[in-house]
Amino acid sequence: MNLAARARRRRRANQANAAAEANTAPEPNIKESIVLVETLPKAEPAFLRPRHYILAATFGAFVIVPSVLTAIYLAVFASDQYSTTVGFSVRAETSLPVSDLVGSLIGSSSNGARDSDILYEYMRGHEIVSLIDQRLDLKEIYSLPNRDPVFSLHDGATIEDLADYWSKMTLVSFDGNAGLIEAEIRSFRAEDSLNIARAVLELSSQKINELSNIAREDSIRFARETLDVTTEQLRSARTRLTAFRVENQMIDPQAAIQGQMGLLNSLNAQLAEEIITNDLIRQSTTRDTDPRIEQSDRRISIIRNRIEDERSSLGAGVEGSGPPYSEIVSEYEGLVVDREFAEARYLAARANYDAAVTEADRKSRYLVVYSPPTLAETPTHPRRILIFALTTLLLVGVWSLGAMIFYSIKDRR
Q1: Average pLDDT, stretch 173-201?
Q2: TM segments (predicted)?
Q3: Residue 143, SS3?
Q4: Beta strands of 116-193 (E only): which ranges?
Q5: Neighbour tally for 324: CB within 10 Å
């Protein structure tokens, strides 16, 4: 048994004796209490144990050495990084009636927010990384500091590795309420950061234009399809009408009938006039062999025969063959009605298409840049003091937690 255990046992025994004497004996005075305290044994001097040396060694190995190595790496090997910030917003230009003002504001905001969401995800995806890599060779830009393997891109990196590294070097933030997108772009040279920021801005503008074109095509696609259908219907109606005219050798059957009806009316008028003249001749002469009567009768007969021929031609059709004029006119009127209906549908579809195109042109989307990229003059990363402090704090916390777990297990044995 060691000395510390003996001292503890001695103190417990003295305390028990003192408590017993206090219960049986009268209250001691102050002098007796001082004498009693002076007779208690004194604690032995403390000294370091092997476990204390082990604890100090683990602290040095797990805290001090890594912290010193981190400080040396940050001071000697870590390369400076220059950052460029670019900020923009997506806007949609619309023009709606005053009665739809509230709806237009809500619709414009929601459309802009959806476009901003798409653009935010696009700036963090593989596509923009691949396009910028083709333009600027990102793998070479990010692997410039050969002595800095921690903060630079390793050799032989794939597109997935480059995309992961891009997410570390390009921090994109998005304010959903205001629709503002801001990107902080870092690299190991200020010129590279500026060029990457300009490429991001250009590709983002192209993506918005692509989205605008897709929305425009979607809005006018139905109108264009309807216009194509009505155009084909109008072309078919006119083709059938032309074929009818060629087959029947007349431009307008109604005009032809009106001409024949005019001829019949004229013949009927001439017949009536000749009959009256014949009656007048008969009343003015007493001779039945008057040559004027014979001539008038012959004229009346000729006119009547002509009228009969014209009426027969109206019933028999063109030149006495083919369908009668009534069927021709009926077919012609049906073709004309089909053409007029097709023309009306075509005009309505054309008006709808023009209105859809005008509306789509008014709803154009574009980028509004509120923070253009500029050339950085001083490096902002890596934040050496912050990294060193966080590293040291993390090491101390892990070491303390390990020491507490170790002593807890040891005390329970």
Answers
A1: 88
A2: 53-76, 385-409
A3: coil
A4: 170-175, 180-187
A5: 14
